[in-house]
Design a protein that fits this description.
411 residues; binds (2R)-2-hydroxypentanedioic acid; single chain; alpha/beta; binds nicotinamide-adenine-dinucleotide; seven-stranded parallel beta sheet; 13 helices; five-stranded mixed beta sheet; 17 strands
């Protein structure tokens, strides 16, 4: 449960899924050299084996940190998702175990928005279909079904970081933008929020999904929503595969008179674990459909920035305890702590814990020179500073506080 600070070269960092080398560089620059770097994700049993002695783990969207995996990771003190989505981690389990999870909330936003704009233009011109025909030697020179984006309406579902960027880019090419979000959002440019999803679907010439994977978005788009779309409108999903009923999409794209005119899909309910595995989908082979292997955020710029951002957050948490921008944890932003030892204490959020800590320290004559506290409904994170000579005694006291989840000292 409790940890004493380790020398940096003893802190083991497991990096999975080929995160950008900028992550390794950032960690090395911060003094962390004990890094195991793997190009792929790992299946549960292998992951349990590998993560056993790791203090930090870095991953992208294909590694699933379930409660079972996290419970087996006895030394783990921090998790870095080198992406935006954090649905692949059991955030609640990580929190209960006192492990903060960090991500890169902005670094690939622009890359996704640019890809979607490109896809809208290609779909409206029926280029996927025409390109496939040309590859087969068919010369189909015709304007049938090809339209400009100018003056058409884009419906965005989920008007967050990506949705808003996309809206701005779409307006610059002359599109009207409407959006649907469960929260009231400030519309950028001339965008308009629509309160009812079906009302939005009835107006949009292209619909693009930018929601996170949550209980409320699971299967939020199925046969009923495709039927509510304007006949022949385009459909784009670069959010998460679980948001869309993929069989219903396949049906809406096929038949004598398809309801949906074309689609660009980057994310799938089941995705191959590595580039070596076959990609299986009911959408394969359907005309005017762009299929991409979950690369919406995969540009060199985005990946390099993500590497620096997330590795920097892990190093900062390891060095000074800062949890600023953690997605599952009380956020504490901390100055440097030269000349003193800093103790990190994660506890169940119940009355009396701070009093117990202060009393225990007072009883042992340990002076607290700084104290920072943040809580969520179920856990509390308190950071204390003491004279370096008192650090071991202070850690011993913290370990005994009822409700302690984790205690660690930074020298
Ligand atoms: N394809 C890729 O490579 C790629 C890259 C980056 C992000 N993503 C995915 O895109 C998602 C969105 O990213 P973001 O940075 O814009 O997130 P964000 O959190 O900034 O925005 C999400 C928006 O969705 C809204 N929302 C949540 N539930 C909703 C619901 N049920 N109905 C309507 N709106 C709802 C939220 O209020 C918010 O405005 C990420 O969670 C991630 O899963 C995919
Ligand atoms: O890099 C990945 O695997 C995931 C990218 C994207 O879906 C994200 O959530 O940022």
């Amino acid at each position: 449960m409790s940890k004493f600070s380790l020398a940096k070269d003893k802190i083991k960092i497991l990096l999975l899924e080929g995160v950008h080398q900028s992550a390794v560089q950032t960690l090395n620059n911060a003094g962390y050299t004990n890094i195991e770097y793997l190009k792929t994700s790992l299946a549960e049993e292998e992951l349990i084996e590998k993560i056993k002695d790791a203090h930090f783990v870095g991953l992208r969207s294909r590694t699933f940190l379930t409660r079972k995996v996290l419970q087996s990771a006895e030394k783990l003190i921090g998790i870095g998702c080198f992406c935006i989505g954090t649905n692949q981690v059991d955030l609640q389990a990580a929190k209960e175990l006192g492990i903060p999870v960090f991500n890169a909330p902005f670094s690939n936003t622009r890359s996704v928005a640019e890809l979607v704009i490109g896809e809208i233009l290609l779909l409206l011109r029926r280029i996927p279909e025409k390109s496939a025909q040309a590859h087969q030697g068919v010369w189909n020179k015709s304007a049938n079904g090809s339209v400009e984006a100018r003056g058409k309406t884009l419906g965005i579902i989920g008007y967050g970081h990506i949705g808003t960027q996309l809206g701005i880019l779409a307006e610059t090419i002359g599109m009207n933008v409407i959006f649907y979000d469960i929260e009231d959002k400030l519309p950028l440019g001339n965008a308009k929020q629509v309160a009812d999803l079906n009302e939005m679907l009835a107006q949009a010439d292209a619909v693009s999904l930018h929601v996170p994977e949550t209980k409320s978005t699971q299967d939020m788009f199925g046969a009923e929503q495709f039927a509510a779309m304007k006949k022949g409108a385009m459909f784009i999903n670069a959010s998460r595969g679980t948001v869309v009923d993929i069989e219903a999409l396949a049906q809406a794209l096929t038949g004598e008179s398809p309801q949906v005119g074309g689609a660009a899909i980057d994310v799938f309910p089941v995705e191959p674990k590595s580039n070596a595995e076959e990609f299986v989908s009911p959408l394969r082979g359907i005309g005017n459909v762009i299929l991409s292997p979950h690369i919406g955020g995969s540009t060199l710029e985005a990946q390099a920035n993500i590497g620096i951002e997330v590795a920097g957050k892990l190093a900062k948490y390891s060095d000074n305890g800062s949890t600023l921008s953690a997605v599952n944890f009380p956020e504490v932003s901390l100055p440097s702590h030269e000349g003193r030892s800093r103790l990190l204490h994660v506890h169940q959020n119940k009355p009396g814990i701070l009093t117990s800590i202060n009393q225990a320290f007072a009883d042992k004559g340990i002076n607290i020179s700084a104290q920072y506290l943040q809580t969520t409904a179920d856990i509390g994170y308190v950071v204390l500073e003491v004279d370096s000579d008192d650090s071991q005694a202070a850690l011993d006291q913290l370990k005994q506080i009822d409700g302690t989840i984790r205690a660690r000292v930074l020298l």
